[in-house]
Specification:
The complex is a heterodimer of chains A (about 100) and B (about 180). Helix content of chain A is about 75%, strand content about 5%. Chain A is elongated and about 55 Å long. Classes of the chains: A mainly alpha (about 100), B mainly alpha (about 180). The interface between A and B is large, with 68 and 83 residues. Strand 1 of chain A pairs antiparallel with strand 1 of chain B, so a sheet runs across the interface.
């Protein structure tokens, strides 16, 4: 019998999500923070597909499809913003991007 | 629990994906981070194959590991932002983040293990869920039940495309009046 309990996938996803959250908190490079966000999206997708497989439903897979499309849109806009910020300030250290600070 | 072949594949891939995720967060060089993340996306794609979702696995490879990561690498090299000094104004922030992340992972592992339903297992996808069948079912669901979200996604992609172009457009200085 070949089988993996679905809880293993949930555990793995929780660990990956936490690593992504930690990356957002400890890194100063906005590009790495962006990549950590992608990692968190992936962790969520993994649970979606795991439960779609358990319940033999396609809705989970469709939702992952939408998440991938939204992530692509988000990356396009986000990287455009980062490029513009770099052009304006010559620096993208997250600690120095505090122009909105009152 | 008896070891079976799927479980062994799962455990090996899980170790690889966690190691690459950690490598992504802790690499000094942003290019290494991006390459670690590509490897992580590929392992997640293999998980999707194990779970009987070949279409999502292929989308993962082409969109994430292909398009998105190439965009990332392009921007990293364009900006020359491969290594930013990690001196921070808040010296207590890094240890605090470590501690909170550790608390979060211990909490979630405890909750998941304490409520584990080991009877819900993912069996090997049988021959009826082959690639073509999966594609057909996905398309049927996508274009009937989820037609409106699908169309909204296309508008979202259009808006993102226009937004990216507008954001990176060179401003003509002194032309506005």
């Amino acid at each position: 019998m070949n089988s993996v309990p679905v809880d293993y996938y949930v555990l793995l996803s929780a660990i990956l999500f936490t690593i992504g959250a930690m990356g957002v908190l400890i890194r100063r490079n906005p590009l790495i923070i962006f990549m950590s966000i992608e990692l968190m999206l992936n962790a969520a997708n993994l649970v979606f597909v795991a439960y779609a497989s358990v319940f033999e439903s396609f809705s989970g897979q469709i939702f992952v499809f939408f998440v991938i499309a939204v992530a692509a849109a988000e990356v396009a806009v986000g990287l455009a913003l980062i490029v513009q910020i770099f052009k304006a300030k010559k620096n993208i250290n997250i600690d120095e991007l505090n122009s909105l600070k009152g | 629990m008896l070891m079976n072949s799927d479980l062994i594949v799962f455990l090996v891939l899980a170790i690889v994906s966690i190691a690459t995720a950690l490598g992504m967060v802790f690499s000094r060089n942003a290019v290494y981070s991006a390459l670690f993340l590509v490897l992580n996306f590929v392992t997640v794609a293999v998980f999707y194959l194990l779970l009987g979702a070949p279409f999502i696995a292929m989308s993962q490879i082409t969109v994430y590991a292909g398009a998105i990561m190439v965009l990332f690498l392009f921007v990293i090299m364009l900006l020359g932002a491969d290594s930013i000094s990690s001196t921070s104004d808040l010296p207590w922030q890094k240890p605090l983040a470590f501690t909170l992340a550790l608390v979060l992972v211990v909490e979630s592992i405890y909750l998941i293990v304490s409520r584990a339903q080991m009877d819900r297992v993912i069996t090997e996808p049988d021959a009826s869920i082959n690639t073509l069948e999966n594609l057909r079912e996905m398309a049927m669901t996508l274009y009937s039940q989820y037609l409106l979200p699908f169309e909204i996604t296309s508008i979202l992609l259009l808006v993102a495309m226009v937004g990216a172009i507008v954001l990176t457009k060179q401003e003509k200085v002194g032309q506005g009046s």
